[in-house]
From TrEMBL:
Keywords: DNA replication, DNA-directed DNA polymerase, Nucleotidyltransferase, Transferase. This is DNA-directed DNA polymerase. One of its GO terms (molecular function) is 3'-5' exonuclease activity. It catalyses: DNA(n) + a 2'-deoxyribonucleoside 5'-triphosphate = DNA(n+1) + diphosphate. Its EC number is 2.7.7.7. It comes from Chryseobacterium artocarpi. It holds the Pfam family PHP. One of its GO terms (biological process) is DNA replication. PANTHER family: DNA POLYMERASE III SUBUNIT ALPHA. The lineage of its organism: Bacteria, Pseudomonadati, Bacteroidota, Flavobacteriia, Flavobacteriales. Residues 1-68 form the Polymerase/histidinol phosphatase N-terminal domain.
Length: 1015
């Protein structure tokens, strides 16, 4: 009779998790239960598992509402019945098709509330009667309907406190005060579990209603097989044809990649194809190949990364560009006979092109069969406090204070209630959203399993997340985007457009182990380059004097927080720089991990050691890696493989102590490790970026600016372009474009960088110029572009009309005379029907730094001079960045401009690493420990005077700061008579701040990795 249960997946309505719902039912001895969340199946599959664990018979249903109003409840007779309702909800969510008031359903029972019953009920349709409605049945008009009635006792919460929580959720959903919440928006106060005998007792005078309810439930079941593969099975239409096509493509690629006579590659292809066929994954490979084929036909660039790059078949199909033989990558890391879930290809495109790829996938494989994974966005505590506080009517000032101090104890009774209810709502789902990259391509229509929803981004999503998808037998295709590829793509196009040179950036002879690139790499001259531009990465490259591809692959892995946290990063740096100061403590480590000095740097290394030292099969080594990793960790699986490892080591005659030490290393590392193929893919893209930066620095930096991505703000890439010989020009209506562009060595900043100029207008200005020629004057510009006085002033202040040769002051006066209080939507023609009077303006003098302060106000950084030129002090420091390695352990005083700072946890508290440029434009780094920060904290962007001791760590200098002070700018000459505004501009200078919250990295003595041979 519990045929209308809500979980908290009835968003902003239910208060019970699936676990709580089922546990409470079990405690009351309830034997069957129907989950009917509002317009969703999000929790249904978890509900089925939890019910069966508790010995309860699960039944599936959906409560259908439109704009908050309950229309009816559907209960599926069989699993297939869900598809009927899913289609109705999908049509409503995605196409705006109205939900029918009386649906045509063949595999569902439909239950209407008494207030919304149709005139004529079909055989499968019933009226739900609440206990408090039973007294109505003595009326004549209802007596005739009793034979079509069932018990309707909804479940939404479990206690009185939770009823209040339900009311708060409804207030949040309706954006009203609790006191103003309409009663029809709230469930009954009795919507909680009561004992079956209590409910049956209430309906004892209506045995037909009880029997109807029992009979309805008796006819329903929820049969579903989990983990049955549900991805699209075949690309061609049959397994045999898929294998035939995959084999043909693989061998064609083999010849292209390796030539005709590479025996090693041929054997590996044969081995991989056999496993792929046995596991029925040929279709998965071919669908991925098809997507890549389309991408190539469009001239797009992609990067196939992740463990998929361990496959030579993927390499020969062009899915990845990493040779697994060259890097000794184990196919078993990607796919083996013990791994029943399908492989997982991660493929990146430029952020500008990803939507085109997605459109292709949806159109090629059918919108019925393709959707994004969903995600449940949970209530977060700070946002909860604001939402709950608003429902209680707290003013904004109190909410600000409360959200900043969520744990503080308040005396105010209302605030205490806000905190209490806020705590109860933590981890509640708040809304459904789209998974960042996971696409499902199904064999059956997805509505067989879920209704689809249409989030604002425009691609449909399923109603459950990737973990449920895996449970159901779906494996996602990860279609990702990144700005690094956009920078590479745009640079190649810009070089061809501006120089007429075609660069084949996919040619690895150009973009891997190129001598000049290696010089830049070793010096950490990599700003703008994908994955290797952060201060930490540039510091690592310098410490390693990284000058080749394989060391870069290792660096890409050991920089990861997990690997660094295991202590492997520090030890790798030591051994790389001191190859004669350690011994391999067992020959297997020298044979298998010689490239990384006997240190496990990659996930594949776990497999290698398990295989070559422990004697396990490679597939068992992968089980060991997976069992130890956070992903799918299983203590029982881990114990089984651990026992197998030690038994195998004993069989091979290894000493117990040595085996224990090796297992300890595996254990300390496996959960943190990074896939080598992933690192290698990153390294190739890093080299491609670096090649373009080395040989085409201006075009590269222009593209980095336009892609608005990377570790740093735009100003840093502008500075880098300047250091590469570029002449930086402010936006110009005649020379500039929407994006930043280049003519020779002149770089015109794009109109898109003017935050207060609408994108529409910034696009229209160059478009109109291309249509009808250059703008001849300010008047001509106003005549052709519909612009308001505020926007026009910004363009004048930034110098966009400097081609006129008229000073900014005069242009501003002209603009105000021409436009006055003119609104751009008014017709402009009347302004110019008669000749404009030639006004004589007074000569107005400008200070030479006024332009710089205009630029800071509009762009957040100066263009016409450096920040150092705006300082009151003329002092520029005693040492320059380029000479720091000569000052090890010496005190230096430097004047520098702050680029970025990174928060780093330590055992003694918070510290920061800073990145700066000196007056010559070169970068250097600083360390700020907690005791120093207390006395000398950072005070925002700008120039600082620094005092500290230089520490050179493996070729890389860092200044440990003992004192620092922010240096003041000169007074803003534009406000020479306004004391308040004189020094405002400096506050607009920015810095990049990155926060990390992790356990501190271990000290050298804590790593415990033996440097001597063990017998």
């Amino acid at each position: 009779m519990y045929l209308n249960c809500h979980s908290y997946h009835s968003l902003r309505y239910g208060t019970l998790s699936i676990d709580d719902l089922v546990s409470q039912a079990s405690a009351l001895g309830i034997e069957e239960l129907v989950l009917t969340d509002i317009n969703t199946v999000t929790g249904l599959y978890e509900f089925k598992k939890k019910c069966e664990d508790k010995g309860i018979r699960p039944i599936a249903g959906i409560e259908v509402r439109k704009e908050g109003k309950l229309l009816y409840i559907t209960i599926a007779k069989r699993f297939e019945g869900l598809a009927e309702v899913n289609k109705i909800l999908t049509a409503y969510n995605c196409n705006g098709t109205e939900i029918p008031d009386q649906p045509t359903l063949y595999h569902n029972f439909v239950i209407y509330p008494l207030s919304n019953r149709p005139d004529i009920l079909k055989d499968h349709e019933f009226i739900g009667i609440r206990e408090e409605e039973l007294n109505l049945l003595f009326r004549r008009e209802y007596k005739a309907l009793i034979s079509k009635m069932i018990i309707w006792e909804p479940i939404t919460f479990s206690t009185k406190k939770e009823h209040n929580l339900h009311r708060i959720l409804r207030a949040i959903d309706n954006n009203v005060l609790l006191s103003k919440l309409p009663e029809n928006e709230v469930c009954s106060k009795t919507a909680y579990f009561r004992e079956p005998k209590t409910i049956l007792g209430a309906y004892r005078n209506f045995p037909v209603i009880i029997e109807n309810t029992r009979e309805l439930l008796r006819q329903c079941s929820f049969e579903f097989e989990f983990s049955t593969p549900r991805n699209r099975k075949h690309y061609t239409g049959s397994k045999a044809d898929d294998l035939k096509l995959l084999t043909r493509l693989a061998y064609a690629g083999l010849e292209r990649r390796y030539g005709r006579t590479n025996e090693q590659a041929t054997k590996r292809i044969e081995k991989e194809l056999k496993v792929i066929d046995e596991l029925n994954f040929s279709g998965y490979f071919l669908i991925t190949w098809d997507i890549i084929r389309y991408s190539n036909s469009m001239g797009f660039m992609h990067v196939g990364r992740g463990s998929g790059a361990n496959s030579i078949v993927a390499y020969c199909l062009g899915i990845t560009d990493i040779c697994p033989i060259e890097l000794d990558l184990y196919f078993e890391r990607f796919l083996n006979l013990n791994r029943k879930s399908p492989p997982d290809f991660d493929i990146d495109w430029s952020w500008q092109e990803r939507d085109i790829i997605l459109d292709y996938i949806f159109n090629r494989y059918g919108r019925e069969f393709v959707a994004f994974c969903g995600t449940n966005v949970e209530f977060k505590y700070r946002s909860i406090i604001r939402e709950v506080g608003k429902a209680f009517g707290l003013p904004k000032e109190e909410l600000d204070q409360l959200s900043k101090n969520p744990e503080r104890v308040f005396q105010d009774e209302v605030i205490q209630k806000v905190q209490q209810y806020g705590k109860l709502m933590e981890k509640f789902p708040n809304q459904r959203s789209m998974h960042a990259c996971g696409i499902l391509i199904s064999e059956e229509p997805l509505t067989n399993f879920t209704a689809l929803e249409m989030p604002p981004k425009g691609f449909p999503i399923v109603q459950w997340d990737m973990h449920v998808a895996e449970d159901l037998g779906f494996e996602k295709f990860d279609i990702l985007s990144q700005r690094g590829l956009g920078t590479i793509n745009d640079t190649v196009k810009l070089i061809e457009e501006k120089r007429g040179i075609k660069v084949d950036i996919k040619d690895t002879a150009l973009s891997k182990d190129e001598s000049r690139c290696n010089e830049y790499l070793a010096q950490g001259h990599t700003i703008g380059c994908f994955y290797i531009e952060s201060p930490a990465m540039r510091g690592l490259l310098r410490r390693l004097k990284c000058d080749n591809y394989k060391v870069l692959v290792a660096a890409s892995s050991i920089i990861r927080p997990g690997v660094a946290q295991s202590g492997m990063m520090r030890e790798y740096i030591f051994r790389h720089n001191n190859p004669d100061k350690f011994e391999y403590f067992h020959p297997v480590f020298e044979e298998q991990l010689g490239e990384t000095y006997g240190i496990m740097v990659y996930q594949e290394d776990v497999i290698k050691i398990a295989l070559h030292y422990g004697g396990l099969a490679a597939a068992d080594g992968d089980i060991l890696r997976r069992a130890m990793s956070g992903k799918g960790r299983s203590l029982s699986a881990l114990q089984k493989v651990k026992d197998h490892f030690f038994a195998s080591c004993r069989e091979k005659g290894h000493p117990e102590e040595l085996s224990r030490e090796i297992y300890r290393q595996i254990e300390s590392f496996a959960g943190y490790s990074f896939c080598k193929a992933h690192s290698a893919s990153y390294a190739v893209e890093s080299y491609q970026s670096l090649y373009l930066k080395v040989y085409y620095p201006l075009e590269f930096m222009v593209s980095a600016i336009n892609n608005m991505g990377g570790f740093y703000r735009t100003e840093v890439y502008v500075h880098e372009a300047k250091m590469s010989g570029g002449k930086i020009m402010n936006p110009c209506v005649n020379k500039g474009e929407y994006e930043t562009t280049i003519y020779g060595n002149e770089i015109y900043l794009g109109l898109m960088l003017l935050e207060k100029v609408e994108s529409r207008l910034a696009i229209e200005i160059p478009k109109e110029r291309r249509r009808n020629g250059d703008y001849r004057s300010l008047e001509d510009f106003i005549k052709r572009i519909s612009v308001g006085i505020e926007t026009l002033q910004i363009l004048i202040f930034i110098g966009a009309f400097r081609f006129t040769g008229i000073p900014k002051n005069e242009l501003l006066l002209k603009a105000r005379v021409l436009l006055g209080d003119f609104k751009p939507e008014r017709n402009l023609q009347s302004l110019f029907e008669e000749p404009i009077k030639d006004f004589k303006f007074p000569e107005l003098k400008r200070n030479r730094f006024e332009d710089a302060f205009d630029e800071i106000e509009i762009l957040s950084f100066p263009v016409s001079c450096t920040p150092f030129d705006l300082l009151q002090t003329k002092y520029r420091g005693t040492v320059m960045a380029k000479d720091l390695t000569d000052h090890h352990k010496k005190e230096v005083k430097m004047l520098a401009y702050l680029i970025s700072r990174k928060h780093v946890p330590t055992k003694k508290g918070t510290m920061f690493f800073g990145t700066w440029i000196d007056v010559e434009g070169n970068y250097f780094d600083t360390a700020h420990f907690p005791d120093c920060l207390e006395k000398y904290p950072f005070q925002g962007g700008g120039c600082y005077l620094l005092l500290g001791i230089v520490e050179v760590d493996f070729h890389f200098p860092t200044i440990t700061i003992t004192k620092m002070a922010k240096m003041p700018f000169i007074a803003d000459p534009r406000y020479s008579h306004d004391e308040e505004k004189k020094y405002e501009a400096q506050a607009k200078i920015r810095e990049d701040v990155s926060m990390t919250f992790r356990a501190p990295y271990p000290q050298e003595h804590e790593i415990g990795l033996p440097r001597n041979k063990m017998e």
